[in-house]
Amino acid sequence: MKEVAIGIDIGGTNTVLGVVDKKGNCIAKDSIVTCGYGSVDKYIETIAEKIKELLSAIGTQCKVKGIGIGAPNGNCKRGTIEYAPNLKWKGIIPISESLCKYFDFPVLVTNDANAAAIGEMVYGSAKKMKDFIVVTLGTGLGSGFVSGGKLLCGHNGFAGELGHTIAVIDGRSCGCGRKGCLETYVSATGITRTVIEMLGKNKTKSILRNYSNSNINSKRIYEAALQKDKLALEAFEFTGKMLGLKLSDTVAITNPEAIFLFGGLAKAGDLIFKPTKEAMDNNMLNIFKNSCALLPSGIDENNAAVLGAASLIWKANDM
Amino acid sequence: MKEVAIGIDIGGTNTVLGVVDKKGNCIAKDSIVTCGYGSVDKYIETIAEKIKELLSAIGTQCKVKGIGIGAPNGNCKRGTIEYAPNLKWKGIIPISESLCKYFDFPVLVTNDANAAAIGEMVYGSAKKMKDFIVVTLGTGLGSGFVSGGKLLCGHNGFAGELGHTIAVIDGRSCGCGRKGCLETYVSATGITRTVIEMLGKNKTKSILRNYSNSNINSKRIYEAALQKDKLALEAFEFTGKMLGLKLSDTVAITNPEAIFLFGGLAKAGDLIFKPTKEAMDNNMLNIFKNSCALLPSGIDENNAAVLGAASLIWKANDM
């Protein structure tokens, strides 16, 4: 009988559910609107119903090994979602415990970046690696650390907040209430802030001057850079430099064999990889020089989040 | 039969050997001059002889479980000492392999800070902890990370170089060839550099003006601070602030339940703990606030290095 895992990706807008086999094939998939439910109990009940529908659709030829959940502020130690800023339910949601009531297989939870890291190990380009980092570059900057083949969870299950290490003392205001966090520079919103700052600071000609500030976004910066727009190219250079500097510090702490970049900004390819790699090389402590590869994620992008969530089940003993 | 481990602390000047039981009692101890041997083979041969002498002195009532070595640039994955700047033998010394030829029990190697971390877990104040960091404040700044109960080694066995993360971009020149490394600010030599800078920069009255620059050291700064010397107190404040800032970043990555300060500078007590704690609190990401204790090491200082080295043997499965 074929073994499968259920992966659930909880986002601020949608919740996507998928049934995934060991090879990373997404056999069945569905989604619901995350904020479409009055109470968190009703939301979880609906997830349970959807899972049952998916399982009855694929028939009895599969054996379900468990449910893996990737969620904002998902806590891998406690099976909870804690104070997620982009979910309407505040406080601590005991999602593992609640969902367990409907099924007799394990329910594991972690945050999106940790799910991406485990996903990379199970389905992506880190299959043979034991020490690596996945950096997710989306609206914010997330990171998942794998060390000695195991997810680095930390004492409270919140390890891997690289996006909230300080890149610039007294730098840009961050949503976390502090200043200068890496994600205020290196993320889709970070590069947008960089461009807006640059547009104000200098008079470089730029396609991006045609947009109002509120209409500038990372996609448009990317498109401008492809057209050799000087200001857009400089913004990518700066973003990569900020990321590379912090990554060389991070390598000094955890000594990984590779760092994977994942998410929207990573798709800019050389525009982001080149300056990041350069800054890493220039700032790396001697003993780590050329010891850590900077690589794109090897996960199929369409189902990445669901695959990452499902992968928790195959690595249940390594969390 | 009583089980014992042999701990060897290799320093630039002396090599100390001790036979240690599970409770941390150092039953027998000896030392040799590290640089007193022409070849590394002769040095290792002498270590082997000293071990045999120690073992014959304690008689046959003990069962030796293994040899643990703490050494500068000791590599826990390869059992080697690699390019240690303060040893006269350059290149890679395969010390584990060489010493194994003389004995039929395992020989484990790691660097001083990792040995201190394992020592803290076996004999010190981290006995019940699974996620913590030990920061050693000596001539330089070393660190050992324990995560999920296991030493964080990294891909090449060089994890834990917190002293060489960048505290100030384009800051003080470091022995590693780069600039602004944390250890150029936070260490015995770091605080000395701070004081010398301060003496040049301002005209604050200070006992320390009575010394030539080359006679200022961390001990004298400590004594001046005890006498409420304003400049010395400011130097401790600054040092603690630099350390605390970096520690709050480090907490965001590995989420430890405690950070232990160990070594000369840590003995200054509140002078260093208070400003460090304050800077940690002020810069900590919300989810980590009050989650990480800052503590003095609980290891008996006299035999700390030998205990740390010996402790590797009791945690051999966690490396």
Walk me through what this model shows.
The structure is a homodimer of 319-residue chains. Chain A contains 8 helices and 13 strands. Chain A has 319 residues and is of the alpha/beta class. In chain A, the strands form 3 sheets. The first copy, chain A, has a 5-stranded mixed beta sheet, sandwiched between helices. Chain A has a 5-stranded mixed beta sheet with strand order 11-10-9-12-13, covered by helices on one side. Chain A has a 3-stranded antiparallel beta sheet with strand order 5-6-7. In chain A, α3 packs across α8 (304-314) and α4 packs across α6 (230-254). Chain A is globular and about 65 Å long. The A-B interface holds A 73, 82-83, 130-131, 145, 147-148, 150, 152-162, 164-166, 169, 176-178, 245, 248-250, 252-257, 283, 285-288, 291-292 and B 73, 82-83, 130-131, 145, 147-148, 150, 152-162, 164-166, 169, 176-178, 245, 248-250, 252-257, 283, 285-288, 291-292.
